[in-house]
Amino acid sequence: MSAIHDLPEASLPKNNTGLLRFLTCGSVDDGKSTLIGRLLFDTKTILADTLSAIERTSHRRGLDEVDLSLLTDGLQAEREQGITIDVAYRYFSTGTRKYIIADAPGHEQYTRNMVTAASTANLAIILIDARKGILTQTRRHSYLAHLMGIQHIVVAINKMDLVNYDQAVFERIRCDYLAFAEQLGIKDIHFIPMSALKGDMVVERGEQMPWYTGLALLDVLENAPTAHSEEEEPFRFPVQFVCRPHKSDDPELHDFRGFMGRVESGSIGIGDAVTLLPSGKETHVKDIRVLDQSFDRAYAEQSVTLLLTDEIDISRGDMIVQSEISPQERTALPLVTRQLNAMVCWLAETPLDRQRKYLVRQATRESKAVVSAIEYRIDVNSLDRAPVESLQMNDIAHVVIRLAQPLSVDAYATNRAIGAFIIIDESTNNTVAAGMVL
Prior knowledge:
The protein is of the alpha+beta class. The chain has a six-stranded antiparallel beta barrel. Strands 3-4-2-5-6-7 form a six-stranded mixed beta sheet, sandwiched between helices. It has eight helices and 23 strands. The chain is globular, with a radius of gyration of 24 Å.
């Protein structure tokens, strides 16, 4: 292993792969799986043997056209019922960027699957059947996408071929959705009329809707912003591991003490002042390392080792953040707290027991915790709030959680990585809930 002072400094490039994670959701039978299949088919990312297999399956079912939904409805139970149960992930790329697609289930009983899929998405495609208009599931999934911090919504008004590509139908649904979105506070919405089955306005524009002058779906996706690209974010670095290679034969490494982890947001450079949480002590960045190479700066989503100028006691679960520059910027520091006000989605089949202690895991830190209060439960169908004494599977509620150890948190709305947490049942080690700090 080379001595650290012999290594040249270099710039660690920004993670700018163009990767876009997006979610498809909406009511049952709105064509989510077919839309994803159409994207894969028209962008020529389906292997020949896979295409042959779904062609044979479609023929056995007596269909005149290839059932592209079979590309994502992989579970046997889904194929038997004709619905999507689990979250199906697919990957494809174009000449411009790479994509990860999550096909979320439409039924209410699979709300937890929808929340899981939405937690990492940068954009959501809400499908609406042009014949049916806005349904309860449309409102539910729009609310969940908004709750999970997805800022960019594409409303795909699908099956336009079944309403003779009528512009009046498109405009009516568009107006109805805008009125609903205003209640939720959704701001960035793009409306596209399409036929996933025929391929109109998905990858190719087609010739059936000359009255629509906007972009086709793939064009919208190609130009959508990626995570960490839209605004300057504060630096957040949860420490995963403290590296001290005591057994090294290199004398220069006997005093080596590096803090390994992933930059969750923002960026940091050599010489920058940082604050260590929860202790609140300050120091400076001495070096930024990846393996045996030194870099002068690190960016969001990069895994690096930080070396600091001062010897300060830091352990796994602590967080390194950029120090405030002026008193006016104190809000840039995370909140160090023993109480969380949060929205949670209960994932477990076993109901919440408020007499039990659970384990809260946020970033790389854990703390024993109890749910001290349930402020209200959200009816995801009507969006009404109701008082409850416990939480059942798929329930979404505003709760207050008391912690045994302090956590360093941001509001989920401003920092999804640091504002998110999970609740674990210590007896089974199962994840029973996912939460978002308010």
